[in-house]
């Protein structure tokens, strides 16, 4: 039986090792939203590391099979989750589609790429969940296309309360392979962070906008 806490720690360790996740409390990153952040996550980096890529594919496929045995289609959220969705769909021998952030401006003007039948049971794959807004836009698009969305699986989440509330409101179950709490635990165990830095990261997660304004 898979120990979810141990796999979450193992994945957090790998993401730090390959620098898919970087921690910089003393020199914060600036997100597109303008929020200052002591952490930056780019899970597309995993595609360049065959061992990590394989681990993610197998772990995500196992999780989906265990939680959603009736799934018929795997859907990736563009653009970060398209490659992982394709890998997982291949592992599960299932059709794969992906959902654009906006409809294509030419041709068929598709929002959903690939063949999707009405009523199909879909599991959505995301690379990262922050506020959850873009992830849930994909869920809305699939539901509007009359798909039955069983839930979503993501590589990593910051665990913002905003995203927890948003997924609950949309009645979309979410599971993640690793998360912010496991990441901090691994970083502290590796002596990657001093205690003050760990405390800063914990404070940021509770109030990202306020953390940046106070600097």
CATH secondary-structure class: Alpha Beta
CATH topology: Rossmann fold
Radius of gyration: 17 Å
Q: Work out the helicity level.
A: 40-55%
Kindly state the mean pLDDT as a whole number?
92
Task: Classify the oligomer.
Answer: single chain
Q: How large is the count of helical segments? A: 8
Largest sheet: 6 strands, mixed
Computed structural class: alpha/beta
- Strand element count: 10
| Weakly predicted, low-confidence segments | none
Strand portion, in percent?
15-25%
Strand order of the largest sheet: 7-6-5-8-9-10
The first-to-last residue Cα distance is: 45 Å
Question: What does this protein structure show overall?
Answer:
This protein is an alpha/beta fold. It has one domain (4-213): Rossmann fold, CATH 3.40.50. The protein is 43% helix and 21% strand. It has helices at residues 4-17, 50-67, 82-92, 133-144, 161-169, 180-189, 195-206, 208-213, and strands at 21-23, 29-30, 36-37, 39-41, 73-77, 96-99, 112-113, 121-129, 148-157, 174-179. A six-stranded mixed beta sheet has the order 7-6-5-8-9-10, sandwiched between helices. It has a two-stranded antiparallel sheet with strand order 1-4. The longest helix is centred in the first third of the chain and has 18 residues, at 50-67.
Label this structure with key terms.
8 helices; 215 residues; two-stranded antiparallel sheet; 6-stranded mixed beta sheet; alpha/beta; Rossmann fold
In short:
Helix content is 43%, strand content 21%. The protein is an alpha/beta fold.
Q: Topology of this protein?
A:
Blueprint: H1 4-17, E1 21-23, E2 29-30, E3 36-37, E4 39-41, H2 50-67, E5 73-77, H3 82-92, E6 96-99, E7 112-113, E8 121-129, H4 133-144, E9 148-157, H5 161-169, E10 174-179, H6 180-189, H7 195-206, H8 208-213
Parallel strand pairs: 5-6, 5-8, 8-9, 9-10
Antiparallel strand pairs: 1-4, 2-3, 6-7
Helix pairs in contact: 1-6, 2-3
């Amino acid at each position: 039986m898979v120990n979810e806490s141990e796999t979450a720690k193992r994945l957090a360790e790998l993401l730090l090792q390959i620098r898919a996740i970087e921690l910089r409390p003393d020199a914060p990153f600036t997100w597109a939203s303008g929020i200052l952040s002591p952490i930056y996550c780019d899970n597309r980096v995993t595609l360049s590391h065959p061992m990590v890529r394989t681990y993610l594919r197998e772990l995500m496929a196992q999780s989906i099979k265990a939680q959603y045995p009736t799934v018929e289609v795997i859907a990736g959220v563009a653009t970060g989750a398209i490659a992982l969705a394709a890998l997982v769909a291949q592992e599960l021998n299932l059709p794969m589609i992906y959902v654009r952030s906006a409809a294509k401006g030419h041709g068929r003007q598709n929002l959903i790429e690939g063949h999707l039948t009405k009523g199909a049971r879909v599991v959505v794959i995301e690379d990262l969940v922050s506020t959850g807004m873009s992830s849930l836009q994909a869920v809305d698009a699939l539901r509007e296309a009359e798909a039955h969305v069983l839930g979503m699986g993501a590589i990593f989440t910051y665990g913002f309360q905003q995203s927890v509330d948003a997924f609950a409101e949309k009645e979309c179950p979410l599971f993640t392979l690793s998360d912010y709490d496991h990441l901090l635990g691994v970083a502290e165990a590796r002596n990657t962070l001093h205690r003050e830095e760990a405390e800063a990261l914990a404070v940021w997660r509770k109030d990202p906008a306020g953390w940046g304004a106070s600097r």
